Amino acid sequence: KIPFSREIYIEQEDFMENHEHELIGVLQLMNAMDKENHIIPFAPAFEKIILSLASQTAIAISNMRYLQEIKELLYSFVEAMAVVIDQRTPYNANHTKNVAMYTAGFVDFVNKEYKEGRCEIHLDSNQKEQLVLAAGLHDIGKMSVPLSVMNKATRLGRHVEDVISRFEQLRSYYKIDYYENRISKEQCEEECRYLTEAEAFVKELDQFSFLREEAEAFVKELAERVYQKPDGEKIPYLTGYEKECLLIKRGTLTVEERKIMQGHVEMTSKILSNIRFNHSYKDVPFWAGSHHELLDGSGYPNHLGAEQTPMEVRILVLADIFDALTARDRPYKQAIPMQQALEVLHSMVEEGKLDGVLTDLFHRYANEELTKYVV
Questions:
Q1: How many helices (H) and strands (E) does the chain have?
Q2: Tell me: the pLDDT tens digits for 330-342?
């Protein structure tokens, strides 16, 4: 405790500069005292000590600022990447933002439940910070996925117009065959009627999210039909790719297209492996690149089991699946109500794919915190 006198006030000031010679502060020492506690001027011998102290203080302040600037740079990078990922396609416009929001909110909810003695799970500030960063970067690999796959909203996508155009062409060919006496009027009318019905069927099936048995049979029969022109050229009613698209059991992607889409996870890991995360953020690449792993090993890309899947990844998987189920900006699927989405999560627990304890907590979190975001 330094005595202060209104009558006597002696100070020593030294400016603190960083390595770029920018003034970042002033070190001020007041009221040097002798052995009898009398205030005296600072001795010249103390100047070097004071200068050294000012220099060390400047270094400490600069380091603290640099650490904060690096953290802000990392967060701004993550936010920028999230914007690029989500704005690349209108069908992914809010996904990254939502997953990060759900992840952060869920961690806060879990910690509150832990503090109040209602659960045994707790995440510290570093775990939360890394997990939210991983959520913001988990889909960065989608930048490598072709838009023709990313934006494929229906089974055939843009190829539905090719089918419609071909059917119109085939109707014209049958009419020409009739006018040139190669087929009868009845044959012409029958073939044209079949093509009109097939066109309506293809348009309808193109929008379906799952394949019914009767539809599968019709597609196979349609794909076997071939028109032969007078010069011998053969025109199939459906190409191999069109047949494959129309026979998709669920969703809009073929087997090959699904592989391309799933490849975004490996690309996420590859991109993040080239970023030098320091020790405080060392887990971000692994967590982000594991957001499609499931506890029974049926996930991808590494088919991790329960023992290899840390709690943080399990949380990220929950948030990712929940948003995928409830998202309203996906043209290839309808959003389902929140309670139904939670039922799907619980069914995945029963299948051994998701963590039961975390899913129960997420159910409570959704009902308490997410009703204003999700119907």
A1: 13, 6
A2: 766 778 999 999 9
